[in-house]
Amino acid sequence: MIAETVCSAVSAAGLGIAAVTAYRKRFLAATRIAAYSLVPVGLVMTGVVGWLADTAFSPTAWAGFALLGCAWLLFATTRAVERRRGGTRKERRTAARAAAQDATTAPTASAPSLDPAARPAGRPTARPAAKPRGEDDFGDIEAILKKHGI
Q1: What is the pLDDT of residues 83-98, one digit of tens each?
Q2: Region of poorest pLDDT, from 15-19, 89-93, 134-138
C-alpha cells in the first residue's frame, strides 16, 4: 500500500516538473520527463511493484537467486579453465594427434642463411651503392636528426 502511494507521488511530482519544463518551451525535454514520471504508476498498475515487494522479503526467492548466482559462477569458472587449457578434451586430443603426425614427417629445408661468413667463397657479397656527390643536400638535415635521436 505504501509503495503504491510513493509511486503515485513520484509520478505526480514528475508530471509537475514536465509541465514547468513545457511552459519554458522545452517540449522535447518535457515529453521525456513525462515519460519517466509515468513509469512508476505503470509498474504499480501492472503488479510489478507488488511482485518485487513479495520477492524482496521472501527467503525462498533469495535462496533461488543465490543458487542462480552459484550456477553462473560455476559456468564462468569452467569456461575460463577451458579457454586457458585450449579447448575441450576432444579438441586437445585432435591437436595432439596432429602434432604427433607432424613430428613423424621429414622437416622441410630451412631458409638460406644471411650470415656473410656462411656464404660460399665463390659468390661475392653485395655492396651498398655509393651516393652520387651532387645529392648531399640532405646530409646536414640527417645529421641534425641523428643528433636529436630522430
Answers
A1: 887 767 777 788 888 8
A2: 134-138
Q: Which residue do the cell numbers 519517466 mark?
A: 36
Please give the grid coordinates belonging to residue 130.
Answer: 655509393
Is 17:33 a contact under the CB 8 Å cutoff?
Answer: yes
Q: Residue 90, Cβ neighbours under 10 Å: how many?
A: 8
Residue 69 CA, chain-centre distance (Å), reads: 22
Predicted pLDDT at 120: 59
**DSSP line for 1-62:** -HHHHHHHHHHHHHHHHHHHHHHTT-HHHHHHHHHHHHHHHHHHHHTHHHHHHHHHT-HHHH
User: Residue 87 and residue 80: Cα distance in Å, rounded?
Assistant: 10
What cell numbers appear for 92 in the block? 586437445
Angle made by CA atoms 34, 31, 49, in degrees to the nearest 5: 30
Check whether 8 has a pLDDT greater than 70: yes
| Crossing angle of the two packed helices 59-85 and 48-56, in degrees rounded to 10 | 80
Quick one: 50 exposed, middle or buried, by C-beta within 10 A (0-12, 13-18, 19+)?
middle
CA pair distance 66, 105, nearest whole angstrom: 54
